[in-house]
Amino acid sequence: MEEELRKLVEYAEKDIFACSSPNDLLNVKAKYLGKKSLLSSLYAQMRNIPVEERPAFGNLINEAKKRIEDLLEQQNKVIKENAWKKNEAKAGTDLTMPGIFSSRGGLHPLTIIRREIDEVFLGLGFEIAEGPDIDDDFHNFDALNTPLDHPSRNLADTFYLEGGGLLRTHTSTVQVRVMEKYPPPIKIISPGRCYRNDKPDPSHSPVFHQVEALVVDKGISLADMKDMLSQFASIMFGKDVSSRIRPHFFPFTEPSAEMDISCVVCGGTGCRVCKYSGWLEMGGAGMVDPNVFDILGIDSEFYTGYAFGLGIERIAMLKYNIPDMRILYENDLRMLRQFKGEFR
């Protein structure tokens, strides 16, 4: 029996070394290790062998099986290596040549600022809400107390679509949808893209980014809004930056205000950036008009709230001293490499 197993291993070795493809190996494996192979039949014969001889007989079969498995694994490595060398020669690969440099991308400055803004407001207890870029007149204008003759509803200012839709002109549409769906208290920000029919210039773009905030609860006052704006300015631009609000008008807030911060370039002493006023305009704000609450089914006698909106491009331009908004959209690597997570 031992001689028979030795010859079996020799035959298997010749067949295995003659294999030149994975399929050949599979066929040889089935021949010598499969269910109908000689080794399998020898296992079945063990019941005919005296009990005292079975351990020795079993060890011989296991050794033969292990030897054949090792040969199969050895030849499989040889076949893979030969195939790799063949492909290498065919492709003309020169392993001595230096590798191709792979540059590492980084975040766009608008993305960096957007994430910083999110982190600031999340730290102040806000939640992030998002909505569709394509909306309708009700959510973009009617629910925000905007009259039909308001200039913003003109074709010259808003992108209208076939079928009655439009590209949202602000992310206030998200605030409307949140107030429709959830009862107070509400404390959210709504960052995202906005669209207006503006000709590109140093301070305007037909596509831009806003982050708007909405707080609705019992006893919310103008002082709460001013305090929140002041906290945001100091966290975003540094403790040396102060903020103020001044009267303005928006259809959806009453009273309304504009938010300013002290110039981040000159520190408030006056320069070309702030037009020698010492202040930079940041965005609009105000107490939510009771009419908006009434339209959306919120009891304006019971709840008050404030809202404000800030331009993300505006904040990026101030923080990074970018003089022209169009630079943010030109994808000039000389500019983009200057930021954290730059191309390497």
Automatic annotation (TrEMBL):
Family the entry assigns: Belongs to the class-II aminoacyl-tRNA synthetase family. Phe-tRNA synthetase alpha subunit type 1 subfamily.
Which gene name belongs to this protein?
A: pheS
Its primary localisation, in coarse terms, equals cytoplasm
Q: What are the Aminoacyl-transfer RNA synthetases class-II family profile domain coordinates in residue numbering?
A: 113-338
- Top EC class per UniProt? ligase
Source domain of life is: Bacteria
- MF-aspect GO terms: ATP binding; magnesium ion binding; phenylalanine-tRNA ligase activity; tRNA binding
Per the UniProt record, the source organism is Cloacimonas acidaminovorans (strain Evry)
Cellular component terms (Gene Ontology): cytoplasm
Protein's cellular compartments: Cytoplasm
| Pfam families attached to this UniProt entry | Phe_tRNA-synt_N (PF02912), tRNA-synt_2d (PF01409)
Q: What is the protein's quaternary organization?
A: Tetramer of two alpha and two beta subunits.
Kindly indicate whether the keyword Transmembrane belongs to this entry: no
CDD domains per record: PheRS_alpha_core (cd00496)
Q: E.C. number, please?
A: 6.1.1.20
- Protein name per its UniProtKB record: Phenylalanine--tRNA ligase alpha subunit
Q: Which residues bind Mg(2+)?
A: 254
Which cofactors are required for activity? Mg(2+)
Q: Which UniProt keywords apply?
A: Aminoacyl-tRNA synthetase, ATP-binding, Cytoplasm, Ligase, Magnesium, Metal-binding, Nucleotide-binding, Protein biosynthesis
Transmembrane ranges, per UniProt, are: none
Catalytically driven reaction(s):
tRNA(Phe) + L-phenylalanine + ATP = L-phenylalanyl-tRNA(Phe) + AMP + diphosphate + H(+)
Q: Name one GO biological process term.
A: phenylalanyl-tRNA aminoacylation
Region forming the signal peptide: none
Relay the cofactor remark from the entry: Binds 2 magnesium ions per tetramer.
